[in-house]
Amino acid sequence: MAAAQSTFPLRPQEPILCPVCGGENDHDAVFCSCGKSLGDFKYVLEELRAETKWYESLASRVARFIGQPAYIIVHIVLVILWIILNTGALAGIDIFDQYPYSLLGLVLGIEAVFITGFLLIDDGREDAHANKLAELDYEVNVRTYRRLEDIDAKLEWIMTRLDRPDRLNDA
Length: 171
Ligand SMILES: [Zn+2]
Prior knowledge:
By secondary structure, the chain is an all-alpha fold. The protein has helices spanning 2-6, 44-51, 54-66, 69-85, 102-161, and strands at 16-17, 24-25. The longest helix is centred in the C-terminal third of the chain and has 60 residues, at 102-161. The two termini are 25 Å apart. Zinc ion binds at residues 18, 20-21, 23, 32, 34, 36.
C-alpha cells in the first residue's frame, strides 16, 4: 500500500523557477521574492500595474489622499486662514479677497474641476480592475469545470472497470 501511495501521480514537487528573475522558489510558493506571481493563472493586480499610465497612478494617489480626514482638515484650516487674512485685522497684510471671497470661490472651483477629473480616472481604473477579476473568475470556473468533467469521465471509466457503475451516482 505504501509503495502505491508513493508512486501516485501527484503534481511534481519541484522548485518553481521565476520567469522574471530566474530565482528558485518552493514548489508551493505563490509569489517570488521579486514580487512576480507564480500561479498558473493571470494575476490581476500584476496585469493592472503593468498597464498603469502615469496619470492613472497620479489619480489613484490623489483619490487616496482625498479619502482621508486630513483632506477635510487642510481645507477647513485654509478657508479659516483665508477669511482671517481678509478681515484686515492682521497688521501688514492687505486685504486681497474681500467678502464674499470670490477669489477663494474661484480657487476652490478650479480645485473641484481637477479633483472630479482625478476621481473619474480612478473610477475607470476600478471598473477595469473589477472587469479583469470577473474575467479571471470566469476563466478559472471554465477550467475547473472542464477538469472536473475529465475527472468524472475517468472515475466513470474506473468504476466500469471495477464493475461497479452503480456506485458513481450514489455520492
Ligand atoms: Zn522572481
